[in-house]
Predict the structure.
Amino acid sequence: MWTRTVKGRALHFYLAGINNQNFLMRDRETGTWWQQITGKAIYGPLQGAALDLVLSDELTFGQWRSESPSGRVLAPVAKYTKEYDPNWEPDIAKLPVVISFPGTELKSRDVVIGVSINGTDRAYPWETFAKQTPVLDRVNGTPLLLVLGPDGKSFRVFVARIDGHDAEFFLQADTQEWALLDTLTASQWNFQGCAIAGSAQGKCLDRVPALKDYWFNWRNYHAGTTVYKH
Amino acid sequence: MAFSLCAVTGIALFFVPAFIIRPFRYQAPRALQVAMSLRQRAPIGTLIAAVVCFVLAYALWRISSRWGKAVLTVILLIVTFSAVMARLNYFEWMFHPVPGVEFLAQSESKLDPKEMIMSVSIGEDARAYPISQMAYHHVLNDAVGGEPIVVTY
């Protein structure tokens, strides 16, 4: 998700094409071509401009509802409901791939969580992540915490730092309600990254934007990416 | 000769980018640049080419045989098709945009709790975009908490 104000003007985007299975959009105002995954203007009057990333989440509806009870949901468009694919995830995974990176650790359609910290990129294979959650790592000096939600599908990435001090986190034993515990203050944290009990209560961890994507697409736009291994 | 040149121009301006930017095919960086630059110029370029082609065809019509007229007609049809298509966005025929963006309260939504959504929250404004819907529409212009944003999937 991107902000769409460029040089003080709100642009309106539309689908305009495809570039190696990542779509191209154009804006009605200038006709400039933009790459979806990077938010960059790649051709036209605004070439070189970049949209600002908006922090967003990929969650289950249930998880989101519990966090944002007054939030609103995009209404389905009646005449297109038959086009909506309830099975989109496995169906998209079956689509052909036109670029590949042989010799890299992952397969083209492997799902990764991509994170960029000040120009350093790292991909976390979803399978590894889901098995190990929470994952603690360090990218470009920043301690990261990647967490799979209580629903087993939602995910978030945080800076693993409490008041400027690096902290480690682990899952509370599964006999109890879902919560993370930190080793620094022994506080309890919820999936939104906020301390709900303990001496850190009321504090929230900083969020890190992260992209859930296929390996081929992530690797295509982040040539220097490393892959998390453990 | 002039007619052939104008016909080739008018037809290429639509068909070359359409051929390069087709789904499930590799787009080389150079080819993509060519496609975007042609497509950028296609609306005006195909129109000029079509007008010139029609003028030249009018001049050629009288000296053409029956077969020659048939060929001229077919070429004019393709040139016209190209000029029309250069003004239309066929990607939006495959994946229609959301005509009027509307939102539901959670109680009105029929979404299963296990369904994936993309969500954003700016100020007091929290919104969810079901991925099953966004995987079809792909692009949605919205404003959340007064901030104009574009939701993409």
In short: Residues 77 and 124 of chain A are 35 Å apart (CA to CA). Chain A touches chain B through 62 residues (CB under 8 Å). Chain A has a mean pLDDT of 95.
